[in-house]
What we know:
- It is elongated, with a radius of gyration of 31 Å.
- The relative contact order is 0.10.
- The chain is an alpha/beta fold.
- The strands form three sheets. The protein has an eight-stranded mixed sheet with strand order 1-2-3-6-7-8-9-12, with helices on both faces. A two-stranded antiparallel sheet has the order 4-5. A two-stranded antiparallel ribbon has the order 10-11.
- The termini are far apart.
- It is built from 25 helices and twelve strands.
- Helix 14 packs across helix 15.
- The chain is 46% helix and 8% strand.
- The chain crosses the membrane at residues 12-33, 45-66, 93-116.
Amino acid sequence: MWISRLRRVRRTIMVLGVANFVVIVFGGVLTLVSESGCDSAGQLFPLYAVCLAAAVKLAAMVKVGTTQELMAMTIMDSPTQNSLQRKLKYKTWLWWTRFAMVITVLQFIGATYLMFRVAKYVSRDGLPRDCVLGLYQDTRGWKQTLEVAFLITVCFVALAQCFTGSDILQWRSFYATQDDAWKAHYQEVFDHGIREVLCCLGRREYMGVIEEDEVCSVARLLGDLVSYRASGTGHLEFLAGLALLQHNSQYPESYEDCMEAPAFHLQEAAMLHKFAEAAYTGPLLDVGRNPALFLCTWICRQGILTPWSRKWRPKLDGDNWWRGHAAAFLKFINFPAHVLRRGRICREKCKATYFVVVLHYLRCVVIAVRGTETAEDLITDGLGRACSLTAEDLDGLPNHIHGMDPSRKHYGHSGIVEASRDLFMQVEGDPGESGSIGFLSSLIGDGCECDGYSIRIVGHSLGGAIASLLGIRLRCRFPNLYVYAYGPLPCVDSEVADACSEFVTSIVLHNEFSSRLSYGSIRRLQVAAIKVLSQDPKADTALIFRLARRFLSASKHQRENVEEKTSEEPMLSTSVNESPESLQQQDQIYPIWEEAEAEMQQDVEEFINPFHDMASVDNPVSQFMETVPTREDDDDEAPEMFLPGLVLHIVPEGNNMSVPIWRGWPICDVTDGYKAYVANRESFKELMVSPSMFLDHLPWRCRHALQKVLESRNLFFDLTSEPDIV
């Protein structure tokens, strides 16, 4: 029994356990052989402290290992049940793990203090001037050797424990390749982690929740996405696979046969983009635009330095006492206060922050919906499971449009659907018993202030997706309505996405990740990354480390010219449905291997990729791939999510980046410009692993690209007008 338990212990932990035991033994011997004149408490205190810390660390390691085993066994007993016992076991293990980490910090401090005391009593010639660790300066022989060995062991333990991690046992020794067990494990990790982050941000209502809630749903989704661990793939190897995908991914499709984006939509989208960007009234926008001076910029934009102007600012629900969010929004769009009629600053899950602006000179009412900025917004993003759309959600889509079948169920992103329903009640709502009308009806209705005005709903990222579903519901009440979603999340099924093309436009900048982010796309990306590693026999450990580092250091630039690359290097397809024979043929040549150092090339034959030659259906990789949905799966219970409406894809022109082989970072070339095309939403079902996938999602980059597109087509717009800018 004990032998089987020892086999579960990590080898590094065994080494550290022996080292801590050696520290205790050496410290005890030095205490016993200390000289009579050097055995004072002041002289031996560092020795006692280091030995005591090592003993406590050993005991903590045993306790952590025991609680880790109990937690793993609990998960193995019921991997599909989210029980209270499992949560308690995880919290117990986490508490002991953090206690062990505190002891590690104390050991590091104790080792530093010990070396400082030793250096204090050593002269410049290297000989001690006084008693050191209970021994006189003239002590020689085995005692001096023991003293030196003790100091070396203490320093080794203090430094090594900082890089070995907190796990005592190997999780794989329990879970092996059981997909449900890995999902349950990471569900607990994400669930507790998210709740602790929310608690640190002041959301204490999420702590101690046992029943199913939104955090639990997000944690379950994230746990499913880390299930690649069941295939035998570690986190580092998965990153290496993503790095290979980034280098060998499909090159951008040709747009020669595609129609250019309509000029009117481009002009209006560029004109209204600043409202979607201004909705980010928190510090996030300023951190991205001014990393060095973001605090000063945010304070200025919030109007903290001019509190006397508070009374002239509109009062919004949830705003701070000096009405800073209203000030930040108005300062960014550079409009007077009277144009902002209504708004809400919200920090709750599945509830959106929005602003309502009236532009009289354009005869237009603009509703700007904020994207992801708070932890609660991330929870809304994470509620990515599909939910059924009700008839009220699809009020703006008559059954005859595009042949929609009224008897068929339609689906949407559950978090976004709930947020759009709440926002609808805020801006319009259903008439009550008293017959009262909603806010928009009171503003745009017959005989009202804005009678005959058009409605434009805009939003970026999460805000764009919420705006799209809000527009679908409001369309039947306000026919003169249009929605512009910048970098939205896929949020509706294919039929709904097609049906709203007449009044919804989704704008995607190059390789941005959010417009391709769905549960199915991430799962397929996992398979593609693992398949890249499993297909190549030369993927050695050193190269995996190098590729992982290169992938994590995301570049600000784009890849080399497509035509030059395709004429020189073959392309590795990342499609999940590619045949194994074609993949093996393509894997014979990897351009990335040409970038490896000479010494890595010499020893390449000594390394064997553990994923290679796994052709049997019984191997972990095959078992994992069987659980992943393919692009052709059409399951009513888990339908694919798509971008809503007409999709405009903005792509760069020319060569924007050059990556020389002898250097590890890109060199920036001059951007030639951008072009916008009408794209097929099917093209955004797969995540594009690219250095610019996160940077392209930044709102100011989209605004810059739209302006470049207008300049290239000699199209202009003017948002200002004298009657409003006073």
